[in-house]
Amino acid sequence: MKFFNREKEMEYILHILNREPDDIYFIYGPINSGKTALINEIINNGLNKDKYVVFYFDLREIFISKYDDFIEVLFEEYEYGKKPTEVIKSLIKDIPSLYGIPIPKNTLEEILKKKTTKNVFRYITSVLIDIKKEGKQPIIIIDELQKIGDMKINGFLIYELFNYFVSLTKHKHLCHVLCLSSDSLFIERVYNEAMLYGRCKYILVDDFDKETALKFMDFLSKEILNKKLPNNEKELIYSYVGGKPKDIKYVIEESTFKDLREVLDFMLNDEISKLDMFLEVLDYLKPKIEIGNKVIEIKKEDVIKALKLFKESYEVNKKEIPVPVYIYLVKRNILFLNPQKRILKPQSFLVWNAIKKLLNGH
Ligand SMILES: Nc1ncnc2c1ncn2[C@@H]1O[C@H](COP(=O)(O)OP(=O)(O)O)[C@@H](O)[C@H]1O
Ligand SMILES: [Mg+2]
Is the whole model's pTM more than 0.90, yes or no? Predict the structure, then answer.
């Protein structure tokens, strides 16, 4: 699958990577907006392979239930015998992106025994320095970082990790650090974290705007259908799925052998059913949200009241919805929160259309 557009975001990220590391970057946006696709495009086709060594960790694909699981994701073991420096030299010669930090087998075992992050970070730093000595700039990228958001090891692992990332960027200017996440509550937590004030920056990778979405349809219909879609069909697709790359792609792929309207109605009905079920069980589930040491029950009528705000507009100021209610709706992937702009919006146009259809009588 060829990559489409995102020139602006790509240029900006390449520009950041060209400077000396100074901040941790958080790349965030709604689910399936194309964050992972963008970062992979940058790794594979954007970066000058002679200049950079990328360590890319995708936590989404990995089951992480304990500290050891996370540590194992970070490293790629090799048999004892060679010196780490030699391994690094041979590795970085022609492989621009690596899926683990090279470590001798026995060293990893030692590190895992200790159950503290100190030795882990010390080892990683030594590898990064070796890479710098070879004249290359290391980059660490962690995709879906929120997966370790609640993990504990002498306090929260995430704080130790943030501290370490601050030392790599702001203090030592040794390594670029990019963290990706679709979890907007996690991003909000990070955004409000005093320890990170002035030490990190945020890049929003959102669903496409209308103009770009229509161009994406042209791009895909040429690639997949080998024909041009008429304007009315593109407008119809946009009215159902908006600018979400994954949904647009799905529609075009499905319409190779199905009627376009059928595909779109099927998708919308699916979304309506999900939302309907979600609302139906609220009275029975009596979900609770914990804020500080308070436990708050989420009431169905408050959820409906909140969702009704979206009947007229796609974006709503977060002040208009009580905190526990929006936390619950974001947790359930119905809403997306942009902590920088302080707005809430449906996770997708499909969800938005489902809200409008379902709450019409309310
Ligand atoms: N710029 C793009 N060009 C082509 N396809 C894209 C693009 N952005 C996203 N996609 C498609 O949308 C899907 C979801 O994107 P992904 O990067 O996984 O979203 P995210 O990481 O934001 O949840 C991808 O599998 C890819 O098929
Ligand atoms: Mg992703």
Answer: yes
